[in-house]
């Protein structure tokens, strides 16, 4: 009888302990692009699978939509409303160091840019501590931005005075240098702005011809050799959520983040650009590559932008020249 009671007691004890032993943490990811966008269709789900496998099922992920505007994603994660998110640095002027990857004429794939960006951030740019308040788990850049307009361009001067949606960051500095009338609004609003006449054109990567259906509203695309500019994004996580995991699971989550996540995202930006180009051609979009003379003129116009960034980076305690040179060297030899 005593033996039976002991067995029952042990079983009851295991019953009480079991929920703790097998507790599953759900990591809620906030996202703001359409569900069909590659970030939501491929990048986050793939990373989520890596996390689940690395933690042996103890941490799973779930994507949530419309929790906040793209501009408020950082605060959303910092304050614990969401556990993770991706942000575009250009939406906030606090980011200076991150503009290193955005400079015109990098001339590489998004994958190469993203891997180089992560490595250079860890070596140089992290000193600026621009993601304080959250944990940085990855960095990425979209592919080379292109000029998308409602009317054909013969020269850069044709952009002067046109209402062009600019993204923030270096993309906005490009617009200012080219004399456009800047239209500032988040990416999900660009189709409406173009279709309603609020904007005459837009600076964004080729992928948006498909992902944001811009092939329907901007029939002319001008490609700047080397890239008009690139666009910086970060993957961020709530620090308290990460700290609340076991040491083993924290290490597991970080093992599938960093450069691995950055590379995955870069690969998908490239795939999206390929799909966007195909969609543009199918829709009959007129695609033109700027001439060598126009490219040379553009680089001359943009030289002060790079010089200005170097000055601001140095003021932030970063060796801007070394960071930019190394980023370009890694990306171009990738």
Structure summarized in a few sentences:
This is TRAP-type C4-dicarboxylate transport system, periplasmic component. With about 325 residues, the chain is of the alpha/beta class. It contains twelve helices and eleven strands.
Structural description of this entry:
One of its GO terms (biological process) is transmembrane transport. With 334 residues, this protein is an alpha/beta fold. It folds into two domains: 24-142 and 231-272, D-Maltodextrin-Binding Protein, domain 2; 145-229 and 282-332, Bacterial extracellular solute-binding protein, family 7 (D-Maltodextrin-Binding Protein, domain 2). It is built from twelve helices and eleven strands. The protein has helices spanning 2-21, 38-54, 73-78, 110-123, 169-177, 190-196, 208-211, 239-243, 247-255, 259-283, 292-315, 320-332, and strands at 25-31, 59-65, 84-88, 135-142, 145-149, 163-166, 181-184, 201-205, 220-223, 231-237, 286-289. Strands 7-6-8-5-9-11 form a six-stranded mixed beta sheet, sandwiched between helices. A five-stranded mixed beta sheet has the order 2-1-3-10-4, sandwiched between helices. α5 links the parallel β6 (163-166) and β7. α2 runs antiparallel to α10 (259-283), α4 (110-123) runs antiparallel to α10 (259-283) and α4 (110-123) runs antiparallel to α12.
């Amino acid at each position: 009888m005593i033996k039976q009671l002991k067995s029952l007691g042990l079983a009851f004890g295991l019953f009480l302990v079991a929920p703790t032993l097998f507790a599953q943490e759900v990591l809620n990811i906030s996202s703001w692009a359409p569900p069909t966008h590659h970030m939501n269709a491929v990048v986050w789900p793939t990373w989520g699978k890596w996390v689940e496998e690395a933690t042996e099922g103890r941490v799973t992920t779930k994507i949530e939509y419309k929790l906040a505007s793209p501009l408020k994603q950082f605060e959303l994660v910092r304050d614990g409303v969401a556990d993770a998110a991706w942000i575009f640095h250009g939406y906030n002027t606090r980011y200076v160091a991150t503009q290193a990857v955005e400079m015109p004429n990098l001339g590489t794939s998004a994958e190469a840019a993203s891997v180089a960006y992560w490595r250079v951030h860890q070596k140089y740019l992290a000193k600026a501590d621009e993601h304080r308040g959250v944990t940085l788990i990855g960095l990425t850049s979209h592919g080379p931005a292109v000029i998308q307009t409602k009317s054909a361009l013969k020269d850069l001067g044709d952009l002067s005075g046109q209402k062009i949606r600019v993204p923030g960051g270096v993309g906005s500095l490009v617009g200012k240098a080219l004399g456009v009338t800047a239209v500032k609004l988040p990416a999900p609003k660009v189709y409406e702005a173009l279709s309603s006449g609020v904007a005459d054109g837009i600076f964004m990567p080729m992928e948006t011809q498909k992902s944001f259906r811009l092939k329907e509203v901007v029939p002319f695309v001008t490609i700047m050799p080397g890239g008009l500019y690139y666009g910086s994004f970060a993957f961020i996580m709530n620090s308290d959520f990460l700290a609340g995991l076991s040491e083993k699971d924290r290490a597991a989550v970080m093992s599938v983040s960093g450069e691995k996540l950055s590379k995955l995202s870069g690969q998908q930006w490239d795939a999206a650009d390929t799909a966007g180009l195909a969609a543009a051609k199918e829709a009959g979009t007129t695609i033109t590559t700027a001439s060598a003379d126009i490219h040379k003129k553009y680089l001359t116009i943009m030289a002060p932008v790079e010089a200005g960034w170097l000055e601001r980076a140095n003021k932030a305690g970063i060796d801007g020249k070394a960071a930019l040179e190394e980023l370009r060297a890694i990306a171009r030899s990738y």
